[in-house]
Structure formats: C-alpha cells, structure tokens
Design goal:
By secondary structure, the chain is mainly beta. It contains 1 helix and 6 strands.
Length: 93
C-alpha cells in the first residue's frame, strides 16, 4: 500500500489526524495507552508492539491498529522505525 492509498483508507475510516512518527534505534516505551484509535503504516525500520503479553513485529509495509484505551508497550528495531499514523477520536489533536 502506498502512502496515498493509506491516507485514502484513513479518510474512509474517519481518521481525522495524520502524523509522521520517527523513533530511533533503541527506543522503547513501557505499558501505556492512548485516548484515540490509531492506525499506522510502517514506512521504515520495524517496531514491536506488545498487547496482552503477545509481541507482534511490524516491518515496512505492515499496518497496525490499536483501539483507544488498549494497554500496550512498544520498541523500535535495530534501525529505528518510521510510520505514518492516523488518529481518531479521544485526544487525537
């Protein structure tokens, strides 16, 4: 999926805020949650999200989704990670 196709997908699903996120190699954040739904397309590197004790790795071209209020932790791969993310609801601004 191209970035343009992804943005069209986000618009169709009413994601009003789109941001670019870049995290360096070694980045990690312990368990936290967001007040908004998130849908992200990995554009470089990789990230591992842990939800309910299950680790899932996302690489270039993969899409991950997190519903508002979902406790999760995250860590970037050896080359860091970049992704384009849509945010919907909650404190998405």
């Amino acid at each position: 999926m191209t970035s343009l196709e992804f943005e069209m997908h986000l618009a169709a699903e009413a994601y009003g805020v789109i941001v670019n996120v870049d995290k360096p190699a070694g980045y990690s954040m312990g368990t936290h949650q967001h007040a908004f739904d998130a849908c992200a397309l990995i554009t470089a590197g990789e990230i591992t999200l842990t939800v309910d004790g299950v680790d899932t790795r996302y690489a270039i071209g993969d899409i991950f989704r997190l519903s508002a209020g979902t406790p999760h932790s995250e860590s970037a791969g050896a080359a860091g990670v970049s992704y384009r993310a849509g945010r919907r609801g909650g404190e998405a601004a």
